[in-house]
Design a protein that fits this description.
Two copies of one chain form a homodimer. Chain A has 477 residues and is mainly α. The first copy, chain A, has a domain of 102 residues. Chain A is built from 22 helices and two strands. In chain A, strands 1-2 form a two-stranded antiparallel sheet. The structure holds potassium ion (2 copies). The site of one potassium ion has 12 residues of chain A, from loops. Chains A, B: This is TrkH family potassium uptake protein.
Chain lengths: 477, 477
């Protein structure tokens, strides 16, 4: 393992983090908030970043192990140093780390009990960490994971706009630049539309941060419900849906082939899931709760898109809905958005391929000697990719089960344990009961918080990146 | 499709069913119960069986499709005709079918509200259907499924005492005879031990019926708790554990190699699961409920073995335990017993192989070019078997999710929906809350009962057998 390279990258990450913290510092200055939290954070993060990145010169190339370590410790480092402003705002260390990890992983689970009691600048930083996390995820999916052969690399590589396998290294910067341009451009459009719909600049920017990253933090306790505006809900629904789709396809749609999205198997299935779940939820809300059908649809489509894309915004306290409505949300929590988006979860493409694989097995059970390949976007899916996808799903479900069991053993009620586990592992944010959208995660015991921090970290990094470091093979030699 | 062969086998099955119903008729005679329910059932079933089996002569050999159809419709036929005595006992048609399917699939979920109000002979028949279902399952696993290449045939074939692939046909009878001898012999030992422990002949036989089949029905509302005897609980625990292990290995252990069980990877993992879950549950009961540690252990080991083996007996109302205790039971509900046993569920061997497959994928993510086969009992597991196992798990979980969603949409509470689904699909019997061990399934709405009947049927027949008939390929040509 080339530790120098890892430390060099982490050092550069700290420098970058110190630099971007200047933005909330300016916000604090504008609103007359205390400058101390950000000034100290910038100093600590920036100086340490400069020292480390100069002390450890980058030599040679990343190999697979270094790649895993950089990604995993990169997110951890961002979460740890990003929590400094919270600490100086008086939040306890474990809660500060929880909130910061929830930000950088775009989870949106919060331990803040009275959100609006915190300063505008702290809440700005909180939402901004999600936008930065979203950038990191796009980078990870399109540029790094394909190189690390994690959980279906060729699939994601095929979707990337530029690079081919042998040319990835020199093109990482270029790919990242292209995709971030798309990310920033769509963000700018959303913020402008939200302002046209009546939001202040502050509200528009902070909510754009957490829509595009499918993060779900809001500076208001009520979340999107605070605005009481169908127009704002509509805009946010559209942009959540965009953020939950593959950014490489967005790039292609904008710059190459207008039909890129519509032709994509994953995008079609993603749309189908959203429409089906919305239809069922609309019916359920209308039937059970005697709501007006249009109002039911308004709540249903917003909440389904919010959960499928793993954003986690709420326009209603969906925890108070009947179980026949809650089950729809619980079911889609396990799917998540598309690969190459900022969404978390198992991802639509994996889900789709597991279904195709099973259908194929049924076919083989009648025709044992027939060979029928599994296709995705008209290309045959190789066996090693299926293995990676299957194993992802198995490990994901195992972590979910162990996490649920541990939370229950720590004394949490069953539904809260189940949904707290999937909401953090899937980077969704809110769950049901004790961790519902109008509650917060501060009720979780301290050990449980550490567990959920690990869930967010593992879930965000496509599971393998973290779990592989627990195998003896990773550290051997 | 050769319908004549299918009908011929089903006709013979009905003749057999009509014949064995003479046993509860004799019980009814002995206890002075009404003879009508069994007399009518014998007449209808027997006559129809004779007519059909003579009308449709068996010609040619089963092919794959015929095999699937015979197994699936065989269980359905048994459930339908086995429900006649319940109907004549005054139970509604849907409830009678539910109880009968629950019997023949060895599930043990009941719709009887006041069990002890029913006659001794009806309750005898109810338990006997489970013992017959258990016989059917052993036959299915060891003799039929290997031929149908379902969900890992070579694995199970390897465990069967006699046949090799090309010789299966002539040996089905022989294999079945050997295994049923083991089944009957172990049953006789259990019944004798239960009588020595103080049970009446009736109680010993009926409870042996539902232990060896991992069925879980009892003629008493309180189940095994009715006996208040640690000795009886101990005997039943041991025999549930035996019934949840592979009967082909029991045969080998008895007649060939004493170490057959101990050397088997699946049996080792099965034992590990039971011990681990018992340890956690003992601690949890002791910690949460202030129970004496020995009493906690007594409850814990009985309940863990009962649920892992998918028997479903209870010595306590485990639904009243805290969620930290209930989570242990919920977790093992998804695993089930060993292949080739009478237990249901995903099965330990599939679970073990999914773990090995995932571990292998983690290894491959660090060493992309290394080839490392997956081993089970020192043999390499071929790719098509892994696909069958993975697909089994995917379809199983999908059915579980859809079933849970449908029950919730029908208005059932979430935990009840979750556990009713897994308890029927895994052929366990009781779940939590509305369908807890001291409650019954009569609270489920009629549509929900039909769904759960389907769950029991699908789960018992290793999923593929039923699901494959829903594919267009099955009916083509
Ligand atoms: K989120
Ligand atoms: K059972």
């Amino acid at each position: 393992m080339n530790y120098a390279i890892i430390l060099n990258v982490l050092g550069n990450l700290l420098r970058f983090l110190g630099l971007v913290m200047v933005v909330p510092l300016l916000v604090a200055f504008y609103y007359g908030d205390s400058l101390l939290p950000f000034a100290v954070a910038i100093l600590v993060t920036g100086v340490l970043g400069i020292v480390i990145s100069y002390r450890y010169e980058a030599e040679g190339d990343w190999k697979i192990r270094e790649g895993f370590a950089i990604v995993a410790f990169g997110w951890l480092t961002a979460a740890v140093f990003g929590s400094i402003p919270y600490l100086l705002d008086g939040i306890t260390p474990i809660n500060a780390l929880f909130e910061s990890m929830s930000g950088f992983t775009t989870t949106g689970a919060t331990i803040l009990q009275d959100i609006e009691s915190h300063s505008r600048s702290i809440l700005f930083w909180r939402n901004m960490t999600q936008w930065l996390g979203g950038m990191g995820i796009i980078m990870l999916f399109i540029a790094i994971l394909p190189k690390l052969s994690v959980a279906g690399r060729q699939l994601f590589r095929a979707e990337a706009p530029g690079p081919t396998e042998d040319k990835i290294k020199p093109r990482i910067r270029e790919t990242a630049r292209i995709l971030w341009t798309v990310y920033v451009a769509i963000s700018a459009i959303q913020a402008a539309l939200l302002m046209l719909a009546g939001m202040s600049l502050y509200d528009a920017v902070t909510h754009t941060f957490t829509t595009m990253s499918t993060g779900g933090f809001s500076p208001y306790a009520e979340g999107i419900a605070a605005f009481h505006s169908p127009l704002i809900e509509g805009i946010i629904t559209v942009f959540m849906f965009i953020a939950g789709a593959n950014f490489a396809l967005h790039y292609r749609t904008l710059y190459a082939d207008r039909q890129s999205l519509i032709k994509d198997n994953e995008f079609k299935f993603y749309t189908l899931i959203v429409l089906t779940a919305t239809a069922i939820l609309t019916f359920s809300l209308w039937n059970d709760m005697g709501e007006n059908i249009l109002l039911s649809f308004r709540y249903a489509i917003f909440q389904v898109v919010s959960i499928v894309t793993t954003t986690g915004y709420a326009t209603a306290d969906f925890n108070m809905w009947t179980d026949s409505a809650r089950i729809v949300l619980l079911a889609v929590m396990f799917i998540g958005g598309c690969a190459g988006s900022t969404a978390g979860g198992i991802k639509v493409v994996r889900f789709l391929l597991l279904l195709k694989y099973s259908q194929n097995a049924l076919f083989r059970s009648i025709h044992p000697k027939a060979v029928k390949p599994i296709k995705f976007n008209n290309k045959t899916v190789p066996e090693e990719i299926m293995q990676a996808i299957v194993s992802f799903a198995v490990i994901y479900v195992m972590i979910f089960a162990v996490s649920t069991a541990l939370l229950s053993l720590l004394g949490m009620e069953l539904i809260s344990s189940i949904t707290a586990s999937i909401a953090t592992l899937g980077n969704i944010g809110p769950g049901f009961n004790a961790v519902g959208p109008m509650s917060n995660f501060d009720v979780v015991p301290a050990l449980g918080k550490l567990l959920l921090i690990a869930n967010m970290w593992i879930g965000r990094l496509e599971v393998f990146t973290v779990i592989v470091m627990l195998t003896p093979e990773f550290w051997r030699r």
